[in-house]
Design goal:
The complex is a heterodimer of chains A (94) and B (981).
Chain A: E1 2-5, E2 9-12, E3 17-21, H1 35-43, E4 51-57, E5 65-71, E6 77-82, H2 83-89
Antiparallel strand pairs in A: 1-2, 3-4, 4-5, 5-6
Chain B: E1 18-22, E2 25-29, H1 35-41, E3 48-49, E4 56-57, E5 70-73, E6 80-84, E7 94-98, H2 112-115, H3 124-127, H4 133-147, E8 162-174, H5 178-189, E9 194-197, E10 213-214, E11 217-218, H6 219-232, E12 236-239, E13 242-248, E14 252-258, E15 273-285, E16 289-291, E17 304-306, H7 307-315, E18 324-329, H8 332-343, E19 347-353, E20 366-368, E21 371-376, E22 383-387, E23 393-397, E24 400-404, E25 407-409, E26 422-424, E27 429-431, E28 440-442, H9 452-467, E29 499-501, E30 506-507, H10 508-516, H11 522-529, H12 542-553, H13 557-560, H14 574-578, E31 590-591, H15 595-600, E32 604-608, E33 611-616, H16 625-638, E34 641-644, E35 649-654, H17 658-665, E36 678-684, E37 690-700, E38 703-708, H18 713-727, E39 734-737, E40 742-748, H19 752-757, E41 776-781, E42 785-790, E43 799-805, H20 809-819, E44 826-827, H21 830-840, E45 886-893, E46 905-908, E47 920-928, E48 933-941, E49 950-955, E50 960-967
Parallel strand pairs in B: 1-7, 8-9, 8-15, 9-12, 15-28, 17-24, 18-19, 18-24, 19-20, 31-33, 34-44
Antiparallel strand pairs in B: 1-2, 3-4, 5-6, 5-7, 10-11, 13-14, 14-15, 16-25, 21-22, 22-23, 26-27, 29-30, 32-33, 34-40, 35-38, 35-39, 36-37, 37-38, 40-43, 41-42, 42-43, 45-48, 45-50, 46-47, 46-49, 47-48, 49-50
Classes of the chains: A alpha+beta (94), B alpha+beta (981).
Chain lengths: 94, 981
């Protein structure tokens, strides 16, 4: 597969390490989250046949974490974003 | 030595002789020959024995789809089993043996299997040899394995190199027949970067094997001119002997180039094969078509082959299996074979055409509406028995029979991403479907354009379309444009044994039996009968099987469907996939800065991940590793020892939020750590389980150096980047791994300070007052060399870790050794390191094993409740905090002579020994030279409150029961006085 890195352009997937569901960005707020929220965050993942937002780490490159939107059936990649930008857009900061 | 069946002409150099040996006998052939063509020219038709029944077999094809003519090519450690004689290029001195026969090809004792074929039908291994069960492993399986199977491995290491490479292009064309060449000319002239790959050593495809004309001249002339032009274009790369084996995601294709297979041995420094990864915008599949046989009784005798193969051997290789041949066909293409061979002076005994309205010939007899119903000849064809249109039979004498049942487009690559081919009624064949791999298009015979004109034209058009080229296409050369109509004719009725898959010995009857027994889906049919499961993947047999299945099920062939086509298109040696990654090159080897020095000292090394670390340093007189390790431990504890700990991960953390960041990744607090101090830190996973531990030293307000375990260095760095980028994206903090930038040595033992004081520049006071336990700082050594010093201890002794830039690592180790002579300094390896950390009760990988929590490790109180950190919330879960939670303890045998084994479980002193009475387990064990008996670390339910309890350590697997006492995990210096000395 080829991942179109937002900063570095098209790179072979062999340069990356896969981690899975990008929902890991949505870490519960430690001040307000319930134990159930933490359980869901730690253990539950969607496993769709189709479009999936997932985390890839450019270990053999610039060490960016990316959010790659990939179709798990066709492997078509429709979007690649810096995970940092995604995290900020989802309200994460410090 | 003569070549009785050598003809004139062809693409071989008749003037040059190449000697070769097959089954111990000398022959010769010519440059341009394959092993199969040279053997046929020498009058050899019998080249192998079949897989199951050991029936005599000769080549069915002249290409890579060959099921029968498999040989062991080369000898010694280069022996290569199951090599297709039909693609093996002849070279001088070639050595090959037939396989799957004993004692010889002509007399094979295992041919007895053929007599027992009634017992060896479809699915026989599911039905027979079932009883008694114990016989399977000891008796049946070894016998079957010996009887079946193909060539043998040499069981020796392959001396040749294999390589991997990467190429990029605008257009990849797979196949250099008429459509591929025309596409390459079009794209090449249009300025595109083109790769033209062909599995053959001679590009040209069928044009090399036919007597067709292009622009009123021999087609080969056009091929030569086209190749000359393509070679002259700087933007076109020709890759002969290169098979495109698979279409992978996003325009990546795998291709195997056989760089040296046509040579006796690879040229110096050259690989045997290269696995290419080709990145391309567009791909044009011009893979041509494969002729399909017709199944009839005994249709597998040597001499019976595809009509197109017969023609290829005659036209291209100037060879014929016999001087008197016949043809069995259901289409016009078979007649082409008869015409070509007749023109070469080969006697055509008859053309048997199933069609009553077949064309006639003035040169030979055409038997219209007739079928070949049987063949004769023990080790090769002698007679074909024909049923004529009027129902009478006739025996025709012939040494070869060309069979043509029509052509199947080679759609394989179009289906590598789960596409399915579609059925074309006019061709009675599958053609590429609608769902192709993105960027791939198909031209020529692979797309059903079977005429030469059609192939040339479609190649040019497809290239233009794929690349969006503007302007006029190159003029399509003139060539035959005969309409193609194929009517299906799969097998002759009423046969006892008509062979479909010749490599796996599957007959028409086997397919019928499979259907009868309920294995009706094509995928079941394939696995039950093994049809298409051999090394040729059923290229000549699958469709026949499907057709019969469809007929029996009363369905159409497209309704029955095909099995899934998967890469690779043709077999690839494992060595090619491995490339250079074998032996020591299987993964990178990381050497520590003191490696070469350690080697000089005669160290024994151990692999730790990619690292090679010194395990112990034997000295003269030591014959057992324990002697060395015990000495290293004693000497370190008595005076001073040095250990290379460069392999521990080092991560530089800088930024105004560095402390805040460390507070997130470590469960214990770091914000208040003073500059110049180091602290032990425990990292948790988000689920509350311990992930890794290490130290973090604060070199400045905004600068920490984090260490990780050797094993987790990469994972921890990745995790820290995840936390930094994905969870807290606005923290001002930067990370970089400096593991390899610093050579770091532990200097441990009561004399460690005295030793270091000889090296550390006088400006830096490292006395206990100035540089106490857990201090850290930037210093210089040896007169100005920058260094870092940490007063940390894994051994439990007064100890330091000193780091210098890696390039000074070797010199620093030598310096420590020479300056330490007065203290009898010794180097110690990973074993002594392990013994000392067990003696001290420090957790390591065995304890941080992915199931343990801070509480288990005796560090429950370290998890700060005053702040949020990764894993802190879920570490509070009830399930991880039960009253009888496992706690780390020490274990010692009541009888000091007895053994403690890691992996053993702890049980009460009496009572049952079973899983429900399990109390805990031992994670680490070692002989302690300090205590003079074995000791262990382990986890015990509520262990903290059970010190002094007598228990049993059991290992039912190794039949071990030892009486032990539960003690503190800190066997040595529990108060830490030595650390602080």
């Amino acid at each position: 597969m080829i991942i179109n890195h937002p900063l570095l352009g098209p790179r072979d997937s062999a340069e990356f390490v896969y981690m899975g569901d990008a929902a890991l960005i949505d870490r519960p707020d430690p001040d307000t989250a319930s134990p159930e929220d933490w359980h869901d965050y730690a253990y539950l993942r969607d496993n769709p046949a189709g479009e999936h937002r997932e985390l890839w780490f450019h270990e053999g490159g610039d060490r960016s974490w990316l959010v790659v939107t990939r179709n798990t059936v066709t492997h078509e990649i429709s979007k690649v974003e810096l995970a940092r930008d995604v995290a900020r857009a989802r309200g994460r900061s410090t | 030595m003569t070549q009785p069946n050598r003809l004139n002409g062809g693409l071989i150099d008749h003037e040059t002789r190449l000697k070769f040996i097959f089954d111990g006998k000398d022959y010769y052939g010519h440059p341009g020959d394959t092993l199969a063509s040279a053997l046929l020219a020498n009058g050899v038709r019998l080249m192998g024995r079949s897989f199951k029944y050991h029936r005599p077999r000769g080549p069915l094809t002249a290409g890579s789809e060959e099921p029968n003519a498999l040989v062991e090519l080369r000898g010694g450690n280069r022996q290569e089993p199951n090599t297709r004689a039909t693609t093996a290029e002849l070279y001088d001195g070639l050595f090959a043996k037939s396989q799957n026969r004993f004692p010889s090809l002509a007399f094979d004792a295992m041919a007895i299997n053929d007599r027992f074929s009634n017992f060896l039908t479809a699915g026989f291994y599911y039905k027979t040899f079932m009883w008694p069960a114990a016989f399977w492993e000891k008796i049946y399986e070894p016998i079957i394995r010996k009887a079946a199977g193909l060539g043998a491995l040499s069981m020796r290491a392959d001396p040749d190199e294999y390589d991997k490479g990467f190429r990029h292009c605008d257009l990849l064309i797979t196949g250099a027949g008429p459509s591929g060449l025309m596409a390459a000319l079009t794209a090449g002239r249009g300025g595109a970067e083109v790769i033209l790959a062909d599995e053959d050593f001679e590009m040209g495809g069928r044009l090399n094997a036919e007597t067709l004309a292009i622009n009123d001249a021999p087609a080969r002339d056009w091929v030569v001119a086209a190749l000359a032009e393509l070679s002259s274009l700087p933007n076109v790369r020709l890759m002969p002997r290169t098979t495109v084996i698979g279409a992978f995601d996003h325009g990546i294709y795998g291709a195997v180039e056989r760089v040296s297979d046509h040579l006796k041995t690879p040229a110096e420094g050259k690989p045997r094969q290269i696995l290419w990864r080709i990145y391309t915008q567009k791909t044009l599949l011009c893979a041509g078509a494969t002729e399909r046989p017709i199944a009839f009784e005994n249709n597998d005798r040597p001499g019976i082959m595809l009509a197109s193969a017969l023609r290829t051997y005659a036209n291209r290789f100037a060879a014929t299996p016999a001087r008197r041949v016949a043809v069995f066909t259901n289409n016009d293409d078979g007649h082409r074979t008869a015409r070509d061979l007749h023109a070469q002076g080969v006697k055509i005994a008859a053309v048997v055409d199933t069609r009553p309205d077949a064309q006639s010939s003035s040169d030979y007899e055409v038997l219209k509406g007739a079928q070949v119903i049987d063949s004769k000849g023990r080790l090769g064809l002698t007679f074909a028995e024909v049923k004529l249109a009027d129902g009478s039979t006739r025996t025709i004498e012939c040494g070869a029979l060309g069979v043509s049942g029509g052509w199947n487009p080679n759609v394989h690559l179009t289906c590598h991403q789960r596409g399915r081919p579609t059925w074309n009624d006019d061709l009675a064949a599958f053609v590429p479907g609608d769902t192709l791999p993105p960027g791939l298009s198909v031209a020529g015979a692979a797309n059903g354009s079977f005429s030469t004109h059609g192939a040339l034209k479609s190649g040019a058009e497809a290239a233009k379309k794929a690349l969006g080229l503007k302007g006029r296409l190159p003029k399509t050369p003139q060539a035959e444009d005969a309409p193609v109509s194929q009517t299906p004719f799969w097998y002759v009725e009423g046969c006892a044994r008509a062979w479909l898959d010749q490599q796996n010995d599957v007959t028409v009857k086997d397919v019928k039996l499979s259907h009868q027994e309920g294995f009706r889906s094509v995928e079941h049919l394939k696995r039950y009968t093994t049809l298409g499961m051999a090394t040729d993947q059923g290229k000549t047999s699958n469709l026949g099987g499907l057709a019969i299945m469809a007929e029996l099920a009363g369905k159409s062939i497209p309704e029955v469907g095909t099995t899934i086509f998967r890469p690779p298109y043709t077999p690839v040696p494992i060595g090619t996939f491995g490339g250079r990654m074998r032996g020591m090159e299987f993964h990178p080897t990381r050497l520590t800065p003191s490696h070469f020095w350690a080697k000089e000292r005669g160290a024994v090394f151990v692999e730790v991940g990619n690292w090679l670390r010194a395990q112990w340093f034997p000295i003269e007189g030591e014959t057992h590793w324990r002697q060395s390790v015990d000495r290293e431990v004693r000497q370190t504890r008595a005076s001073v020892g040095v250990c290379d700990c460069t392999t521990l991960g080092k991560i530089d953390v800088q930024g105004t939020d560095a402390a805040t960041f460390l507070n997130k990744i470590y469960c214990n607090g770091f914000a208040k750590l003073a500059v110049g101090k180091t602290r032990y830190g425990l990292m948790l996973r988000e689920d509350g389980i311990a992930m890794d531990d290490g130290t973090a030293g604060r070199l400045a307000e905004d600068h920490f150096v984090v260490t990780t375990t050797t094993a987790n260095a990469i994972k921890v760095y990745q995790h820290m980047e995840f936390v930094r980028q994905c969870l807290f994206p606005d923290l001002d903090v930067q990370l970089i791994s400096t593991t390899e930038a610093w050579a770091q040595y532990a200097v441990a033992g009561p004399n460690s300070r005295k030793l270091l004081q000889k090296i550390v520049d006088p400006a830096f006071d490292i006395s206990n007052d100035a540089f106490p336990f857990m201090a850290c700082g930037n210093i210089t050594v040896c007169g100005g060399l920058r260094a870092r010093l940490f007063r940390i201890s894994f051994s439990g002794e007064l100890a330091f870790e000193i780091a210098v830039p890696s390039r000074y690592g070797d010199a620093l180790m030598r310096k420590l050794m020479s300056e330490g002579e007065e203290f009898d300094v010794i180097p110690y390896g990973t074993e002594a390191l392990g013994v000392m950390r067990i003696e001290k009760g420090h957790a390591a990988g065995n304890e941080l094993n992915g199931t343990t929590t801070a509480l288990n490790l005796g560090m429950g109180r370290m998890v700060s409740k005053a702040k949020d950190s990764i894993g802190s919330k879920l570490s509070e879960r009830d399930g991880l905090n039960e009253d009888d939670a496992l706690k780390q303890v020490g274990i010692k045998p009541l009888n000091p002579a007895e053994k403690i084994t890691a992996g053993g479980h702890l049980m009460a002193a009496d009572g049952p020994v079973d899983a429900s009475h399990d109390q805990g387990y031992v994670t680490s064990a070692a002989f302690s030279p300090t205590l003079d008996h074995m000791i262990g670390l382990g986890f015990l339910k509520n262990g903290g409150d059970r010190l002094g309890e007598k228990m049993r350590l059991v290992s039912p697997v190794t039949d071990l029961t030892v009486e032990v006492e539960i003690v503190s995990a800190h066997f040595v210096d529990p108060e830490g006085e030595r650390l602080r000395a």
